[in-house]
Amino acid sequence: MKKKEVHLDRFHCKGCGACEEVAPKAFRLDDTEKADFLGDDKASPEEIEMAANICPTKCIEIVEQ
Question: What is the pTM of this model?
Fold first, then answer.
């Protein structure tokens, strides 16, 4: 089984909050209204994948290692 790693491009994040809405245990908006990745140990892989798919700027990428 391949390990998956989440990459978050904060520069292109527009702060829409969609990732936080679908995966609140994995993402949150910080004080600058940019997404922070909190880790994948509390959210399901499906939630994280949904957040990546719903991101309008595609700044969440899931990479298989």
Answer: 0.89
